[in-house]
Amino acid sequence: MKSSKKELILSRTLAALAVAAMWSTVQAQEAPDIGPVAMPGPGTSVSVGVGVASGDERDRARFGMFNGLRRHDVNGLIGFRYEQPYNASGLGLKLEGRNLGLDNRELNFVYRRPGDVKVTADYSEITRHDPRTINTSLAGAGTTNPTVNPGGVLIAPGTGQNLNLELKRKGIGVGVEKWLTRDLQLEFAFKNEEKDGSRLFGRGFACSRYWADAGVCSSATANAWGVLMLPEPVDSVIRQIDARLNYASGPLVLSGGYYGSFYVNHNGSIRPTVNGPLGNQFTDTGTITNDAGLLSALALPVALQPDNQAHQLFVAGNYALTHSTRVNFKYAYTTARQDESFSGMGLTGAPGGRDNLGGRVDTTKAQVGFSTRPLQKLHVSGDVAYEKKDNKTPLDLYNAEPVCVPPAVFSSTTRSCSPASGTATRFYTNGNMSPKKYEAKLQGTYFLTPMYAAVLGANYEQEDFGQWTPTDVAGGVSGLKQKLNETGWRAELRRTASETFTGSVAYHQSRRKGDSPWLQPVNFVSTGGQTGVTEVSADQIYSRTAIFPFIYMDRERDKIRAIGNWTPMEKLSLQVFADRGIDRYHAPTDHGLRSFQMGTVSLDASYALSDAWKLSAFASRGRQTVDAGHSTGYDAILKDTATSFGFGVKGRPMGQLQVGADLTWLDDLLKYEQTADPTSSANATLLASTGGLPDVTYRLTRLNLYGEYALQKNAYVRLDYIHHRTYFNEWTYNFNGTPYLYSDNTTLDAKQRQTVNFIGATYVYKFQ
Amino acid sequence: MRQTFISLAAGLLFAALSAFAIQARAQALDSKVCQNCHEDKVKNFQSSVHGQNVPKTPQGAGGCTVCHNEGADEHVKNNGGSEIRNPGAKTANAEETNELCLGCHKGGSKRTHWDTSTHAERGNSCTSCHTMHQPDKVLTKLTQPEVCFKCHKQQRVEVNRMFRHPILEGKVVCSDCHNPHGSIGRALMKRDSVVETCYQCHAEKRGPFVHPHDPVTEDCTLCHNPHGTVADNMLKLRPPFLCHQCHTPHGGNIAVLRGQTGVGQAQITGKSGVNYTQGRGCLNCHTQIHGTNNPSATNPTPQFMLR
Question: Residue A258 and residue A241: Cα distance in Å, rounded?
């Protein structure tokens, strides 16, 4: 194929990258680019343009969540590339900038001599615009000292000020790869990422009888509670250093070095001022809360994430024992520490005058693997791995609970001690369990013919969560396990090395079982302050209403997966993909997670109408189903069905002109099928009355059109049009026009239907 | 000057040895000859790092025949009428293709675990993902996911969901979290485990905390699907359903919404149905769900991630 005289020796991506979200997921297998209308090449070029988006910030909330096009109607589309071709000594240099007019701009620099040295530097920004708009009277939102109800509770929801939360990340990275000798390479990378802004956060507290009896609050009435929206102030830095020496000579490849990760948070805690009264969703009926104890509890400091750091030393490698037998390995030792001063975070009340947690977790990980071909037709591989986390964090009495001192007993009905005079406060410690994990896998591939291979594999995993800290209390769960075993196998039939059809079908099964008795938490409150767990049999711990964490439950996993790639003719290729899996969970209860099912079917096609026109399309449907039972409230079948299709076309109607279109459509439907627990007639009545939770639908239609026209040999214009339409009927913050109200009548909302039309025009010029 | 000369000589010697190691029988064939029939492929090749006529590149080591060696002379003599070795062909043997590429690319730290990686065990070759004669989409952030989605269909749909990482915008790409060339982490994680991979950008979750939430240090994907979901924060399920999979809740409530028929004060109060279903759900009160470092032993203490 000959190229046009006006062929652009420019990078098409330079302009495309200037407009966010210009690529499409509509890519079938084997869909080649259209050809040489715009070929990449070294040189210096600039891209300057303007993009106009319809609507306002609320219309663009979902469209502009990450692409820098939410805030302004008109945006500059600016990019450049400076590329110095490799010179006689093999040195090349490239500097590229994209999205420079947007708040997700980035710069990349590469300087390299292949096989000798590579130096990179990059700068990147991205702002996440929260897709919902907040209406609130909160003063100091996004600071560490916000004030709730600065002028009293909002008279009516929606009468406060609108607030859009943003979280900006700015990252700088540098990297060096240098071959010091023929066999020895130094690799170094450093990244500094600053995070600044605020994100959705909050706090809540209910003054139950339990807490009222403990003196926390004075009233335990049904309305003595508060839920507040307090944006989390974010001002932090993550730094990473990765330095390693790599050795490669003959049969040995070795890599060893240091990886350090450092987190620094400039904010220690949120210390809100909470003014009463609270509306508590009954402002319209005149019911308000003004309990001084409750307001004080809500004003207690909320800890933000403390500074922490991790240091890892590691060695990894690969050794060829023979031409067909290789072993690989890795050993890594990591120590993670967290010792930020409590007082420095603005937190008080630590036990025994302790000023920091002294948190330390040392992790050792080792792995050895092999790959061999003992027979011409047989390939075998496998590995074993070991991981141990040694938690060296000291124990202290951080936890206080009101308990029932015998002869007083705890009433699960009133959630308080009877008589109330038997209530006292007792303390217990944090936990420092040290889990271990062993994993192994083995797989054999037998080549039945040059095209067909049969695969059989097995895997084993043992997890030991460690002994429960005897002075700690397991709260909120019905039982724990110390050890789990999982064994599995997989079989696959594969066809490869064919021009017309390749594919595979595979089945995988695994079974996870507890390898130790159930551990039943001692009821700290009703026993008057006893801690720890008790080993019990499944029969002893059985309860119809118990909820066991699913990571400790026995699990049967079955999965089947098939993929086929068919090229019936040179112009046409088809791909079909299907998988189906089910996890069944078992524990001594009738409730909790029972099963998780998933399945996907997908069909892709690409067709070359001619050398100048290519088509591609896909259709996909997947469903995930969770069957879980709440202990006493409901049984739920939760279904998420995602249907998606896409269509793409690229063409070159004339030498100077290239056009393309991508359409992506997604319909994601979530169903929440609740059934009231048979023991609760009240819930059955309520469920009948409410009709249950409505479906949630997220629907996306995105159409991208573009055209590139060569004005001259070294310049072209690009036009982009994006039609972005979403529908999202979530009830998280608003049901059918009735908003969820925070206690100060703060509300969150977003337009259910959002449509954005974006037009961009870019001029790209290459300096000659 | 002398040092430069020695370096250059050493470089050239190494390039020559590398080429020899790739395939001792490689015969240098001027790429101009190939260009006569394969113009686009050669031009694309020449604009890539491989195609630079400098030491330690295929072009520098002999051009097209460094990779397309067997049958090259006959191929040219017969005007393309006979077969030539093509490592990128569908019919190529994956192990032979990989061996060819690893002849130059075996060093560094990223491919030490290729042999036991899922990708290798599934019969993939380097050219399953990388292209030599077209711009290599894997190497550009904005186009890399297209390559991965050729096989990972479920993820292709998930990245279009409401709550997701900025993958569509090219700000987070597959290789930020996965090492497709092999690692010791599950699902080819870039770091040694899922949590350590997530800590690259979310190091604040590492702790350790005074009050930890154990699944956080076990596996982030117990609660999150990092490719995208239709629940805030990429949660796999909306609270309270997510939380109730593991936890005994307070009270036998069902999930209800403010404004629904039959929902009154009893369902809106405190820890009841509306307040654990709407807003941030259970997280309305259990706000520091990844763990809190609040040491206060004063009631109400921050245990259960309350503050």
Answer: 8
